[in-house]
Sequence to fold (104 residues):
Amino acid sequence: MRNKPCEVRFLPLFEKDLTRVTNYIKYQIHNPIAAMNLVDAIEQAIIERAYAPDSFEPYPSKKERNTAYYRIQVKNFEIYYVFVDGIMEVRRLAYKRQNIKDIL
Fold:
């Protein structure tokens, strides 16, 4: 584990996923507090993982990749990221029951 967190970068796709999920919770389910709590939980999980982003088991993928994907589970969602050149690049946010093969 590192003494300080590594640099974290967010892809626009992740930001779009997060916006879509929180808007759904806020406006379709009418629960803005749950949306805010989810954002807080996601933020906290990413901050914690940034101390040791590559010390977890890579996400198993049948697709040939140049870099390994890692997964963080938060409530009913999964965050997918890669760790390249000392940077944790957060790429996607998916609902647990979503077919992740379609978006990775």
Remarks:
- The longest strand covers residues 87-95.
- The first helix runs from residue 12 to 28.
- Residues 37 and 77 are 13 Å apart (CA to CA).
- The mean pLDDT is 92.
